[in-house]
Amino acid sequence: MRLRSAALLVAALTPLTPALTAPAAHAVTAAAPYDFNGDGRTDLAIGAPGATVSGKAKAGAVSVVYGSTSGPKSSTRTLLTQDTAGMPGAAEADDAFGSALASADLNTDGYADLLIGVPGEDAYDTNNGTVTVVWGAKAGLSGARSLYSPFDRDYDRYGQSLAAGDFDNDGKLDVAVGSTGPITLTLINGPITKTGADNGASGSRNDWWSTSYGITHLSSGRVTGSGGHPWVVLHGSTKGTDDAATALADMEISNYNDWLQDLPGGYVSAVGDIDKDGYADIAVGNDRETSADPSGALGGKVTVVYGGPGGRDTGRAPLVLTQDTAGVPGASEKGDRFGSGVSLGDINGDGYADLAIGAAGENSAAGAVTVLYGSASGLTTKGATSYSQNTAGVAGASEKGDRFGERVTLTDHTGDRRADLSVTAPGENAGDGAVWSLRGTATGPTATGSTSFGPGTTGISTAGAPGYGTALNS
């Protein structure tokens, strides 16, 4: 197990006013991430950072489509921009509101809250960025506050990646924020409430990462087991080479010498328990060719790293998957971008996390998605299936440049305890973008009764190229 070190700065901020504690008899169970209205169904948040708002190009927007017994229901939705009533700031050109999304019930009121990255916001300086928290409620999302970086000008594009969880293991939910510049990772300490002051933060000046790209993607999960706190998977680029750099971080930091464990290089990841052994596993997607990144592969690849009590299970070899792997549909071809998106969730309800893999470059960037299943022995290619816009029942048709599979998510929108497959194609209709959702069944995702919608359906302007689906539930 290779370990890395990093120097940490600690911000001295005004302590947060203590939150009121409800009597035990009336204690509220925290909602699952992305269940904004507390109905037991996961809602779908879709980022369109290229959206034009009030004539401001690339100001950005997010549409939230609420879950129902039939899946995401576009007629019940919330449109969010910086011009939405109650939102901090104002829509401005190049703010890129919606570049990153994350969710948790930050104030533990029984409704999940939505975190939105705004890396182009001019806060203190040009493109410093910010993070907006939108609060969940029975009627859906409403009201918001900003989470500014505590380091003033010592960062750029703050909010380009996000994750939420009790990362420092103090019983309160925190927010991890990726950025560029000298400080590339910030941990905002919980609790985070609607009106409370900032509670403090820490930030990493790790000289391993390229400060030009910073932390470009974050994911998290309980890699060390259900009794442990969530760890964070960090993605960036190695200084001097720009090759993918990926690490597993324990942010309950008691020392600064061994909080990072190396992972196979990639640009996106997902965390879930594939083999039901109590330890979450990590799927790392690297959609680049070896000519662009030595840790890539012809047509792209996904590497599954199994978790254990100490983080990465070093006694178990990682599983490397390409489209040339026996049982995986298709074949590895240059530009397929297999691994452009990854997500883990239990599609068939057997208790094992399954894996959805986007290949946004497949067939001249028309795109496709592959689904593989979890088992007691780990991920298996038995019964693997592939989906595209040419699949019967999936709306539309595969066209060059659609990028179907750029982002994927496996989560339960219907409340039947099976994960549904949602897929974005930000290139659909010349950059308008679109989203599809296929219901999970005992035999896998079904295109029968699948839903599809684009930015216009959910109130986002199609002026320019909004890139609807550039970000999706993480």
TrEMBL record:
Residues 1-27 form the signal peptide. SMART domains: Int_alpha. PROSITE patterns: FG_GAP. Keywords: Glycoprotein, Hydrolase, Repeat, Signal. InterPro entries: FG-GAP (IPR013517), Int_alpha_beta-p (IPR013519), Integrin_alpha (IPR000413), Integrin_alpha_N (IPR028994). Residues 441-474 are annotated as: Disordered. Residues 441-459 have a biased composition (Low complexity). The keyword Nuclease does not apply. This is FG-GAP repeat protein.
